[in-house]
Write a structure and sequence with these properties.
- This protein is α/β, with parallel strands linked by helices.
- The chain contains 5 helices and 5 strands; from the N terminus they run βββαβαβααα.
- It has a single domain, classed as Ribonuclease H-like superfamily/Ribonuclease H (Nucleotidyltransferase, domain 5, 2-Layer Sandwich).
- It has a 5-stranded mixed β-sheet with strand order 3-2-1-4-5.
- The longest helix is centred in the last third of the chain and has 19 residues.
Amino acid sequence: LHPPRHCRILCLDEKTHIQALERLYPTLPVRPGWVERQEFEYLRHGTVDLFAAFDVLTGQVFAQCYQRHTNREFRHFLRALRSRDPDSRWHLIVDNAGFHKKQEVLDWCAAQRPKVTLHWLPTHGSWLNQVEIWFSILSRKCLRRASVRSTQDLRNLIHRFITTWNTHFAHPFEWTYTGKPLAVAPQHYELLAA
């Protein structure tokens, strides 16, 4: 991928309804012959919605937590994101969520100088959005074992993870999919039907 100079390519999406769970009992750590055991009982302290932008070239993530995920929050997120780099042209890759196509969002993008261009992924193509890979990392490395006492604690945990990611682990994701399995798939379907 070789974008023009002074151009940013960002994959945007939202991870909704992240639960602020407080475990009632401590997780039992790994020991020889035993796997880690996590108590299934918890108190639920609400949810958080996370908007995130993954920079395709650097792997850096910018994200903000909100109570809801409407076009109002999305526009607020875009303005905050834009304030970090107002002098570059932007190409934003987004899915087909309704609020990504609201007139207010389109008007905001059209009014930006340098230009901000939205690119919508095809229907059922969210797996093409690289921020989804990062959401998976966030879930596995940060959220799965978390025990928090409030939505504010959850927000702080997420933002600490993002800071650590950007400081120590940020890297562009390397695409390895070639499309070849799709060429083989119809043969497998014939075998299954037989």
